[in-house]
Amino acid sequence: MIKKSLFSVILVPLMGLTFCSGCALNPFTSTASAPLPVQTVRYQDFQTTRQDPAALKAPADTSIKSPQEDGKDVVERSQVVKQVNITGNNILAEHEIMRRIRTRPGRYFDPDQLQQDVNELWKVKQIRRVSGPFVDRQKDGIVITIQIIERPYIDKVQYIGNRGLTDKELATETGLSGGQPLDLHAVKMAKSRMEDLYSEKGFPKTEVTIIEGDELGDNDVIFLIHEDKKQKIYSVSFEGNEIASDSRLKSFIKMKPGILWVFGGTSNRRELEQDRMRLETYYRSLGFFNARIGRELVEKDSGGWLSIHYIINEGPRYRIRNVSFIGNEKYSSAELQSVLKLKPKDSMPEFNVSKMNLDVRRLQDLYGSEGYVFADVKAEPRFLEEPGMLDLVYNISEGQQYRVGEINVVIEGEYGITQRQVIFNRLGMRPGDLFNTRLMREAEARLKRSQLFADGSAASPGAPPRVTLKTPEPQELENNSRRR
Question: What is the residue extent of each domain of the chain?
Answer without folding.
Answer: 4-15+405-471, 57-150, 162-226, 232-313, 319-397
